[in-house]
Specification:
It is built from two helices and eleven strands; from the N terminus they run E-H-E-E-H-E-E-E-E-E-E-E-E. Strand 2 and strand 3 form a beta hairpin. It is globular, with a radius of gyration of 15 Å. The two termini are about 20 Å apart. The protein has one domain: Jelly Rolls. By secondary structure, it is of the alpha+beta class. Strands 1, 2, 3, 4, 5, 6, 7, 8, 9, 10 and 11 form an eleven-stranded antiparallel sheet that branches. Helix 1 crosses helix 2.
Length: about 170
């Protein structure tokens, strides 16, 4: 199953993180505190709002997608959606999939604890697939694979984006 995962580390991550986090923290967002989890996100905020953090994130995301499509010999990719999730202490996101796209991506922007790793479940065995990620990594995997963010013991911020192969 891991052969369908694509992972890379962002060069100059600390510099980029220091630019992105303040923009994300001041961006319009909604606190999700329901059956889906406990985190802040701009996923459900109006798509018409300008998101200043996009300007910093897009070049890195486009570079990642170029390397991803080259690695798998795809002709191209298109971003279907892009958002952040900011987890406070005890934040979490219940098991879910991302319908209506081919791949989902998690960029570990602020990731101080390995205990906050995304739990990814093998669709056949239901066992957790061990993926070793670090702060500054982007992980790409098929969107039909169930995954979750277990309760975190330190603040965690990710950027997530869904893509299709074109």
């Amino acid at each position: 199953m891991k052969e369908y995962f694509f992972q890379r580390t962002i060069a100059d991550h600390d510099v980029i993180k220091n630019k992105l986090l303040p923009l994300i923290k001041t961006s319009p967002q909604l606190l999700v505190n329901e059956s889906q989890g406990y985190f802040a996100t701009d996923y459900v905020v109006s798509l018409e709002l300008v998101r200043d953090w996009y300007e910093v994130a897009y070049p890195i995301i486009h570079e990642h997608l170029h390397l991803f499509q080259t690695n798998y010999n795809f002709t191209g990719t298109e971003i279907k959606s892009l958002w952040f999730q900011d987890y406070p202490i005890n934040g979490f996101h219940v098991p879910h999939v991302h319908p209506s796209c081919h791949f989902t991506n998690v960029w570990y922007l602020n990731f101080p604890s390995k205990s906050a790793t995304t739990q990814i479940f093998d669709p056949i065995t239901k066992n957790v697939i061990d993926v070793d990620v670090n702060e500054g990594d982007i992980l790409t995997f098929p969107s039909f694979i169930m995954h979750e963010s277990a309760k975190v013991d330190q603040e965690k911020t990710i950027i997530s984006f869904n893509v299709n192969i074109v």
